[in-house]
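Hi R.,

Here's the input for the glutamine complex you asked about:
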Amino acid sequence: MTENELMLISVLKCSRSELYTEPSFLTEDQTRSLTRMKQDRLKGEPIQYVVGNTEFYGSEFNIDKRALIPRPETEILVDLVVNKARELQKKDIRVLDIGTGSGIIAISIAKNLRSCRVDAIDISEGAIALAKDNADKNCVMNNISFYEKDAFVFLKEVCFNSEKYDIIVSNPPYIKTSDLSTLPDEVKCEPVTALDGGEDGLRFYREIIRSSKDLLAPEGMLFLEIGDGQRPGIDDIFSQNEDYKEISFEKDYVGTDRIVFATKQSK
Ligand code: GLN
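And here is the predicted structure with glutamine in place:
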């Protein structure tokens, strides 16, 4: 779809085919909205924020500046989780999504696994509000519990909870702090808390990999999206955590290692 089509569809609240089969005139309000959208786009705002929605893993999500824009690579992460979870052949699978943002991962999993319960956490009040709207829009509000919490605090607190997760998934912030200023202008429109991965970009991986071993059920699985060139650093972190086995990487559409997944030892 062209950006013009996306903007018109958003203003007219119609489908792409209706745009051509049922041509309509724009009201004054609609013309004003369209003009504002074009101006925002010209100022460099990403198209997804301008139109306020996007498609991810076959579903529609509201999206705005409160959360990271969904990336196509993250669909590989969700696909992997859904397929591996189906292989578990277990009822009521418990899933934890760390740093849920707009909720795309938690919601797509809840929609595609017949019986599961998902906990989704994010430090940002705005992101959690947006994720709740998206869960409602996608009719999975009953399957997901949302928590507005710092991941580092949540991971420590939940360690004492006896109920373990079958799957932990995250697309954490993974940009090095020193690289944030060099990001393209469109990426700079996104919330810095969703991007900043600390001094070496690996801060969240260290914490998630270390804590998840206490939160996963035996044979439970951890799935993480990773940044370009981070595989050696991730390998290193796993080598310091002996409770995992079968550490595997999955490439994205351009052949870059993009997902790492591992299973907790059954002992
Ligand atoms: N889980 C969300 C996504 O994958 C947000 C990730 C983030 O904020 N780093 O898009």
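One thing worth noting: The two ends are 51 Å apart (CA to CA).

Cheers,
M.
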